[in-house]
Amino acid sequence: MAAHIRPEDRECPLSTAMSYVGEWWTMLILHDCFDGYTRFDQFEANIGLSSSMLTARLKTLVNSGVLVKQPYQERPVRYEYLLTDFGRSLRPILVTLAAWRNAQLAPGDRSMILVDAETGREIEPVVVDPVTGTPASDPRFVFTAGPAAGDQMLSRYGKDSAPGT
Q1: Best CA proximity match to 12, nearest among 161, 128, 148
Q2: Are 48 and 25 in contact (CB under 8 A)?
Q3: Which of 11, 14, 48, 65 sits most deeply, having the most CB atoms within 10 A of its CB?
Q4: Alpha carbons 29 and 18: distance in angstroms, whole number
Q5: Handedness of CA 37, 15, 93, 88 (dihedral sign)
Q6: pLDDT score recorded for residue 9
Q7: Under CATH, what is the fold of the domain 12-85?
Q8: To 10 degrees, what angle do helices 51-63 and 24-34 make?
Q9: Which residues contact 30 (CB under 8 A, 6 or more apart)?
Q10: Tell me: the pLDDT tens digits for 73-110?
Q11: What are the sequence ranges of the domains in the chain?
Q12: CA-CA distance, 91 to 70, in Å (whole number)?
């Protein structure tokens, strides 16, 4: 049996990222958080996840620094779950995933869309290189070994693939 690898010990940023948000329940909890929900009973009602699974996922999100748990009531003690800065940084990922799925659907088949709250106009998020404005999906953008690459990344991408080598 393989030893458990902590997310921070993984070299690949994709595998590390998936360790935080890889379960679809996690994405639904985060979606609720971005919509302003903070309480266990709200998550439970919206998502339909069993209380034991929801408890486990919330604990994982708190332990990984995505959410912070704080009491909002003393007797009995009740907690709310709030996004941390780290958790809020996941919003563009959720927005992009939703847009990716919506792009596969006819406009009339979309059950949720992203709009400008001031104008009501539907928007289409795009990930771009901030220097050139070129979409990150352009095939000229490729992964390569970075400055902290270990043997696994160097083996995958080659020792001469790192920028500046």
Answers
A1: 148
A2: no
A3: 11
A4: 15
A5: positive
A6: 55
A7: Arc Repressor Mutant, subunit A (1.10.10)
A8: 80
A9: 21, 61, 66, 83, 87, 90, 94
A10: 999 999 999 999 999 999 999 999 899 899 999 999 99
A11: 12-85
A12: 21
